[in-house]
Amino acid sequence: MTALAEPVGERLVPSNGDRDHPTDQKDRDFSMLDGRWRAKAERGLDPLARALHRAGISANALTIVGLVIAAATALAIATGHLLVAFFGVILTGLPDLLDGSVARSSDTAGPRGAFFDSVADRVSDALLFGGVAWYLADESAHLPVLVLAVLALSMLITYERARAEALGFSARGGLMERAERMVFLSVGLLFDILVPMMWIMLVLTALTAVHRFVKVWRQASAMDRTAAAPRVAPGRPRPSATDVTPALGDLGGPVPAPTDGRGPHDRRRPRARRLSRVSRRR
Fold first, then answer.
1. How many independent structural domains does the chain possess?
2. Could you tell me if residue 21 is left (phi over 0), alpha (psi between -120 and 50 degrees) or otherwise beta?
3. Among 34, 96, 121, 125, the one annotated catalytic
4. pLDDT tens across 118-169, in order?
5. Gyration radius (Cα) of the chain, Å
6. Which CATH number goes with the domain that contains 111?
7. Is the pTM of this model over 0.85?
8. Is 117 a catalytic residue?
C-alpha cells in the first residue's frame, strides 16, 4: 500500500500521475530507502506476485489484507505487545510490496487501484501511530501529542508532494518518507525505545517537509520569472524607447485636423498659396 505521494508499494498507472512519475537522480540521492531499495525489492518478489496472480489473488485484495494487518498491529501496540507488533509491521509491509507487482502481472494497474492504495496507506499510518499514542499515554499525558505531531508532519509531506505534482512540479525525496518511518517504528518496537524514535522521526520529518516546500517554491518562482519575461520573436531586435513611444492618436486623444482643409487621411500634397498681384495705388 502506497500513498499517492509516497512511492512505497506503488501501482503504476498509464498516465502522467505521480504513480509513474520518473524519479530524478537528485531525489534518489536525497532519499534514504524509498528511492533506492524499492525497485530491487519488487523485482525480487515478482515470482511470488505472479504466483499470487495465478492463484486468483488481486492487488486490491492484498491492499485490504495489509489494512487488516495494520489494524491488528495497532491493537497489539496499544495493549503493550511490542514484539508481536514488530512482526506485525513487517507483515504490513509485505502486501505493500506485492500489490503493485500483482497489479502489473495481471495488467490491472490503473488510477482506481492507485487511489485505493493511497487511501489505505494513510489509514494504516493513522492506525499504527494511533496505537503508539495509546500505548505512550500510560507513561505521560504529553507523549501522545508527540506521536500526533509525527503523524501530522507525515501527512504534510504526503500532501506537499501530491499537490506539487498536481501543479506540474517535483517534490520527491527527503530523509523521512514512508519506508523510513516504518523502519524507525520497527526499531522502536523491537527495543522498546518508542519515545526516542518518535523524537528522531519528528525532527527528520520536519526537515523533509521544509526540504519539499523549498524545492517546490524554487521551481514555482523560476516558472513565474519565465512567465513574466517579455517575449521577442526570434531574429527580431528588441524595440527601443523611441520605437515604442505612442502617437497622439494611439493614446486615445483626437487626431488634430489639418489646417489646409484636407481630411485626416488625405495624402495629397498641399497646394502652394498664390500671391495676388494687386497694383498699389499711389
1. 1
2. beta
3. 121
4. 999 999 999 999 999 999 999 999 999 999 999 999 999 999 999 999 999 9
5. 34
6. 1.20.120.1760
7. no
8. no
